[in-house]
Design brief:
- Two copies of one chain form a homodimer.
- By secondary structure, the first copy, chain A, is an alpha/beta fold.
- Helices cover 34% and strands 11% of the residues of chain A.
- The first copy, chain A, has helices at residues 25-36, 54-65, 111-126, 148-161, 163-167, 183-192, 217-229, and strands at residues 16-20, 40-47, 70-75, 130-132, 173-175.
- The longest helix of chain A is centred in the middle third of the chain and has 16 residues, at 111-126.
- The radius of gyration of chain A is 17 Å and the shape is globular.
- The A-B interface holds A 72, 74-78, 80-83, 102-103, 107-114, 116-118, 120-122, 124-125, 144-145, 147, 149-150, 153-154, 156-158, 160-163, 165-167 and B 72, 74-78, 80-83, 102-103, 107-114, 116-118, 120-122, 124-125, 144-145, 147, 149-150, 153-154, 156-158, 160-163, 165-167.
Chain lengths: 238, 238
């Protein structure tokens, strides 16, 4: 926690923050960072029609382990619109390790926009000025809604969307502490903050026990990250 | 339908559009305008924790009457966050007709951001480039997310959030044909396009049969609009 991160405006009460928690290692590290900054963390996850529940079970454990004051799971049916391998079992998750110029079929249309919109609604009610999201634009799958220019545009919109935007108090910030980090750096940072990566699930097609496939894009990025960080990889493969 | 609104890029197929339909008279008129432009309209409504269902029943009828090709109702629990008289029955809907400098308690935090985020997800799957929303910044309740600057910022964000944003094809537009109209002008426009206003429900606290209170902000704006437009007011009061 750096000195600048501490609220020095006349109160010692922890400042509330919304933290999006998926159950993966990035958002777990993001929550650990928000806690290390002294925030009172309200964790938010989504049952959005994804293929498996292992991720949400992991999110519940992560929120508890890392000291969130509460954890809510919103039920939304993004799967109703289709268009993604993560919500439509008729579209196969790629396992060929081909990363590339085009956006992969695991992209869920407008997912981060929807997640951040709910986080914004909750932030407004709680009068929180920080929303943490563990997006990363380095070792990632090429999704448009993980890029810094998207996050900046969302923050700008958010400050016009809300009561705060009209009444002109403190701006709302979309906090992306991982956005410029390599996967290995995220793992090192999380390890230093005591994240139990054994709880987290990154696999796009984990089984109900949370065991990973080892072949999808997300598994490949995760395994290479542990290797590069020199941190023991606790992932259980099926 | 003006000449510019017609798609002239080599196809006569109707272009898809997402239209947010609440069941009120503004969104009904907005749907009628989208249809008059020749769009194939996909209507979207939300069961978001609002006080009454009369609005959604009206939305279903409006979508059918005005020729939407389909109508979906997403279930989302914005009420879980609280903070609004429209989703929290412990907060009274004001009936004193005082409009003013502050944002009223009927404001639902980040509602239009959430609605537009879902519309964006659907638009991306359908490859629609137009999202219609019946917001109005003239005769309205002073909600921050009805202002043109919010809509512009959302559109900018949306074009960075999506596949289209990266792959650089046609931009997505947030269409707000009512934004600069007075309530009376909206009513005149809707009447000219054949909207059956008797189907629509505007009241913040309608009963289950859709009968209006006649006292809330929304009822007052609506009644004054019919009066000013010289259009017979079909509203049924309880």
């Amino acid at each position: 926690m750096t000195k600048q991160d501490v609220d020095t405006r006349g109160t010692d009460a922890p400042r509330p923050a919304i933290v999006l928690v998926s159950g993966g290692l990035d958002s777990a590290t993001c929550l650990a960072i928000a806690r290390a900054e002294g925030h009172r963390c309200h964790a938010l996850s989504f049952q959005y029609g994804q293929r498996h529940h292992a991720e949400l079970n992991a999110a519940r454990k992560v929120a508890a382990q890392l000291g969130a004051v509460e954890h809510r799971v919103m039920q939304i049916d993004l799967g109703a619109f289709g268009g993604s391998a993560l919500t439509d079992t008729s579209i196969a998750v790629p396992e060929d390790g081909a990363s590339g110029a085009t956006i992969p079929v695991t992209y869920v249309p407008a997912r981060n926009t929807v997640f951040l919109a709910f986080a914004l609604a909750w932030a407004e009610v709680l009068q929180a000025h920080d929303i943490f999201i563990g997006v990363n634009a380095v070792d990632y799958s090429g999704y448009p809604d993980c890029r810094p220019e998207f996050i900046d545009a969302f923050a700008r919109m958010a400050n016009l969307a809300t009561r705060e935007g009209i009444e002109g108090r403190e701006p709302l910030r979309i906090r992306t502490p991982l956005i410029d980090l390599r996967k290995a750096e995220i793992i090192s940072r999380g390890a230093a903050l005591g994240v139990d990566f054994g709880t987290t699930v990154s696999c796009y097609q984990a089984d109900e026990q949370g065991r990973a496939c080892g072949r999808c894009d997300s598994c490949r990025l995760r395994a290479a990250g542990f290797e590069a960080a020199g941190v023991p990889d606790p992932t259980v493969y099926r």
